[in-house]
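Schema walk-through. Below, the input block comes first and the output block second. Nothing else is stored per chain. Lengths vary across the set, and this one has 177 residues.
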Amino acid sequence: MITLKGENIYLRALEPNDLEFIFAMENDESIWNVSNTNTPYSRFLVRQYLENAHQDIYEAKQLRLAICQDEDFPAIGLIDLFEFDPKNNRAGVGIVIQNEENKRQNIGSEALGLLINYAFYNLNLHQLYANIGVENAASVALFTKFGFEKIGIKKDWILFHNHYQDEAMFQLINKNI
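--- output ---
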């Protein structure tokens, strides 16, 4: 049985009461370099996004899920399938966890495992990929733990604090398809 519930966390669809959490995450400049964000989002825009979050992944080409620890349901992170391509059975993966304490609890690892399982066994995807700044050792370690392999480097890809950084592309092939 496929589930989006793990031992310590669960993944759920976005809810209207996630507005303040998503607003804070989208406007956290410290993670803009990993989220490809370069301008602040208004509450109005985040509210509009949440109003359309009910769209099916086949329609929106994206699935964003909240990472939660308890049944009271406050989100502590977000995990995404993006650039969903049903013709070629692939999607990109992105993850962001709210604070260092949550990161140390292996929440990202559990969330990524649940999402990979969902993508491969519910959506029947053939491959997942992740774009990770080469200086982001924690993300590289997380994705390689699940078998993602580095397939290339995009030189000077990300401009962050007036310094260009390389970005690596990682790929995980579903061997069961």
